[in-house]
Amino acid sequence: MNRSIDRRTLLGAGATLAAGAILPAWAQTQPTLRFAAVFSDKDIRADMMRMFAKDIEADFKLEMHLNSTLFRQGTELVALQRDNLEMGNIAPQDIAKQVPAWSLLASAYLFRDAHHLNSFFASDLGAQMKKMAEDPLKVKILGPTFFGTRHVGLKTKKRINVPADLSGVKLRMPPGDTWQMLGRSLGANPTPMAYAETYTGLQTGAIDGQDNPLPNVQNMKFYEVMSQIVLTSHLVGFDLLTVNMKTWQGMTPAKQRAFQAAADKAIAWSTAEHLKREAELVETFRKQGLEVYLPNVNAFREHAQKAYLASDDAKNWPPGMLDKINALK
């Protein structure tokens, strides 16, 4: 009798061990997800990711690497594709390097504001563009992380009203052809430079200016080495909160839904905070001694759109997509 009980016990224990052996490793232990981004610890998006981390902590541990400390700016997408990174905040310009049709989403004066941006990504048009990137790149796009509307900030005191006024101005832009095209579309002389080097570039005169949303100007203290901000409103700034496809497909459908819901919640909070911060910062910078003013935005818009439509980039845009995006409310 005892031998029979012992045998059944051993058989049961063996079955349990066998079942555990066929489970994926991440299901047996709480996995760590490494997240890489260019923004600083003081950025609203850092708080966004802390909120996200708290909401997924029952299933995952999020390890944040900010200020390009894990991967240099522009290389995060390749790291995701090579399974060297689990999550990243990816610029649409970096996606456009591999999916040329995405250069449309990085073009000047495409989105009117954050609401228009979010309406697009929530629409069938957004789903179409996401699929166009996700399938070949093998990543999952969770949503757009709005970080403010980009304006031109200059060290020089020359007043800027139309694109011709930026002729010869060395305007720092992130590396990459799509970013350089953006700088040229404004009438400037784009100069590639990493985000973390921009303050020193302004300080030393290696560049004459930079383009960033106002919260970034505050976070990186660019205002200390600038004299003016020209409210060109040329690009609704956003990146894409993205997860490595191997990581995504390793989740159960229920965990995928919870993961996406946590991302949606954090992104919505971050968007609201950025809009609030933008409204406050115009007056803040004026009090700090900067000249902050509106140029002829229509002149900039017309110049930029002509430049894009005449470029090779436009040849890669999905037919009719530009007009459809413009028609979205």
Explain this structure to me?
The structure is a single chain. The protein is α/β, with parallel strands linked by helices and 329 residues long. The protein has 14 helices and 9 strands. It has helices at 2-22, 25-28, 44-56, 76-81, 92-98, 114-121, 124-137, 177-185, 198-204, 214-219, 245-249, 253-287, 297-309, 321-327; strands at residues 32-36, 61-65, 87-90, 139-154, 170-173, 189-192, 209-212, 228-244, 291-293. Strands 1, 2, 3, 4, 5, 6, 7, 8 and 9 form a 9-stranded mixed sheet that branches. Helix 3 (44-56) links the parallel strand 1 (32-36) and strand 2. Helix 8 packs across helix 13.
Q: Could you tell me the radius of gyration in angstroms?
A: 23 Å
The class by helix and strand makeup works out as: alpha/beta
Order of helices and strands: HHEHEHEHHHEEHEHEHEHHEHH
Estimate what percentage of residues fall within beta strands.
15-25%
Average pLDDT confidence is 91
* Unreliable spans: 1-27
| Cα distance spanning the termini | 77 Å
Question: Quaternary state, please?
Answer: single chain
Shape: globular
The count of helical stretches stands at 14
Count the E strands: 9
Percent of residues in helical segments?
40-55%
Would you kindly provide a brief summary of this structure?
With 329 residues, this protein is of the alpha/beta class.
